[in-house]
Design goal:
Strand order of the largest sheet: 2-3-1-4
CATH architecture: 2-Layer Sandwich
Helix content: 25-40%
Radius of gyration: 13 Å
Shape: elongated
Distance between the termini: 9 Å
CATH superfamily: TT1725-like
Mean pLDDT: 91
Structural class: alpha+beta
CATH class: Alpha Beta
Amino acid sequence: MVLLGYEITFLIYDSYSLKDKRSVVKSITKRMHNKYNISISEVGAQDTLNQAIIGIGIVGNDRVFCHSVFDQVMKEMEENYEIEIHDIQKIEA
């Protein structure tokens, strides 16, 4: 069994209120969970207008597959949302 955990910090463009930010974060979390069956949640910077921190958990039986899923998630987030990723912290078990 392979467990991968990621903490992703990113900047949200065109976010001028907490309502705008939460709309984007909620859309990202719902879409990625439904499409890739990953655990994903906002884990920090809840009161910052244009910055978000989300946590992603991926469980599988093949390390290459888990890394592949994460790469697909990151690619889709960058392509479909007006965000700029600043930091990615990885935890493997």
